Amino acid sequence: MQQFLYFCKQNIELFICMNKTVLITGATSGIGLGCARKFAANGDRLILTGRNEQRLEEIRKELEAKGTKVLTLAFDVRDRAKATECIENLPKEWKDIDVLVNNAGLALGLEPEYQGDFEDWETMIDTNIKGLLTMTRLIVPGMMERNRGHIINVGSVAGDAAYANGNVYCATKSAVKTLSDGLRLDVADSNIRVTNLKPGLVETNFSNVRFHGDTERAAKVYKGIDPLTGDDIADVAVYAANAPEHVQIAEVLILATYQGSGSVIVRK
What we know:
Strands 3-2-1-4-5-6-7 form a seven-stranded parallel β-sheet, sandwiched between helices. The chain has one domain (15-254): NAD(P)-binding Rossmann-like Domain (Rossmann fold), CATH 3.40.50.720. The protein contains nine helices and seven strands, in the order H-E-H-E-H-E-H-E-H-E-H-E-H-H-H-E. The chain has helices at 2-18, 30-41, 53-64, 80-88, 118-146, 167-186, 206-210, 215-220, 230-241; strands at 21-24, 45-50, 70-74, 99-102, 149-154, 192-199, 251-254. By secondary structure, the protein is of the alpha/beta class.
């Protein structure tokens, strides 16, 4: 009997170790929400961040009803002081973050560079670049101390080559690629992995945000093609996070069928 109980204890501990603590930024919609649901289905426990506290609470209830442990943190990644406060004051049992999904990001406007809106530019740069850097700086030192962890940055096909009127957004996603590559070099002497996901056309509220709530214009972005979904990108994130330890999925370009690049889309 004692041997049986010891065997059970060892296997329970192994099972607990297999379950990861995953922090996802921008988790209230789109790719972030897809990641929350997919990692939850994988048996992981989640720290979900976003600006909409009410929506975070709804998602927490949804996932906890299915048996997932969830902690929510309401803050904007542009607010470094608030982000720092939230991370530094995590309960002890939540501090050891295994996977950081830097998903929070957005596009605003689709005008020529010489006609762009200064505030749109600042919001994209502060969210897509500086917000990602803030979360990386707050989380990765702990991973280095434990010599384990995985950073998954959600970039874009737009980071490979600019498309017409994409200018600043494309530049921010190019920065995500460079920052991912740089971080991978910086942690190469550790057991930490870095992945850059580069989605193409994904139907979320992305275009609605880009066009400042113009739903009719946003709908035209996806007309004539079957676009990717947030779940499609989340599937790749979960796969990368659960690859064998010696396998590092460094970069993945995910396009919709009939999409050849960020600017080549064949509509039927």
